[in-house]
Amino acid sequence: MPRYFCENCGFTDKLDKNLYFCPNCGDPLTITYSDDELEVNFSGSGVWRYSGVLPVDPNKKVSLKEGNTPLYKSLHLGSGVKGLYIKNEGMNPTGSFKDRGMTVAITRAIEKNFKSVICASTGNTSASLAIYAARAGIRGYVVVPDGAVALGKMAQARAAGAHIIKVRGNFDLALQMVKDFARKSDEAYLVNSVNPFRIEGQKTVAYEIVEEIGAPDWITIPVGNAGNITALWKGLNEMKRLGKIKYLPKLLGVQASGASPIVKAFNDSSNKIEPVVSPNTLATAIKIGNPASWRRALKAVRESRGAMIEVSDDHIVQAQYLLSSREGIFVEPASAASVAGFLSALQNGLIRKEDTVVSIVTGNGLKDPDSVSRFESIEITVGSEEGLLHSVIAQ
Ligand code: AN7
Question: What is the CATH number of domain 71-92+198-374?
């Protein structure tokens, strides 16, 4: 049977308990499988295609058909490499990659008879929790930093009838609060990415990429709380164990300059992070100073012989605009960090022209409609006089 496992200290336990953190060292737990427990036969599409490598009962699944997201070949931004592919996770049911993990975590909540689920969130986890809790018929509680969540994400949480708890403070404080709650109470199931079942669902992005194009040389991914890069690396390693790929891609984890404690630890060859007390970036999804899964992220990029890099807010906005205006892919700022990271790594020679690269973009542009006010858009207001429109368009 799959088991809880602590990658930091080696603790293991059976899955029947509801654990998030290692009781010995406090790190978030992972779920491991022995070789004969990894199931090679996939069928169907989306996250549940991989139910043979998910530790929940697929007959109880709470699903809105997540996963199976499009992988686009870049037309312009990838001109400096052999191939750049963009995996658009913004095409998931609630518009972000969180749905991959949420479908599995909410299914686990149902299996364990929870009537409520809770998370701290910079927005997308809240939106996903709210919608999946609604689908499952249980109560959703979301704890968010007051005034620091993009409009579209709040709209989703409200529309789905979640209880919204706004904290006077940042995401790191909100996460601390729900962690303290979960340590003492079993009243609500915690579905942040410190929940190992979330990671299990999210690893399926790696399975999909590999099934479609094999192993690229690099995969770039935005990093906030560092759950998703943990999941990506887990999925890739499992695909290698299953014999589906011969080598592992290098990971490029990308943080925003104002919220980049893992980049700093990577550059300093340090084995611990110094949390950023007041993280700051316009990419509010990844405005996180004390990422819960930092150790697993550092381990992943080091094992892959990849890197952690940071990108400025200006470069994020530029990449967001290039993605929408040149590629037809509209993403939110945190997602654009992935592509800004690619461009920066190409420029400094880390990524080379013979490389094949996949950039994972994590959230839909509609999540953060205010963010486009940073672009120079071409807009005029006209009357209805005859010929006016003709003269404008002919210019
Ligand atoms: C679009 O919703 O942390 O490194 O609370 O929304 O796994 O945290 C969101 C994170 C990247 C970073 N891109 O992923 C939340 C939250 C988008 C995101 C990330 C987030 P992690």
Answer: 3.40.50.1100
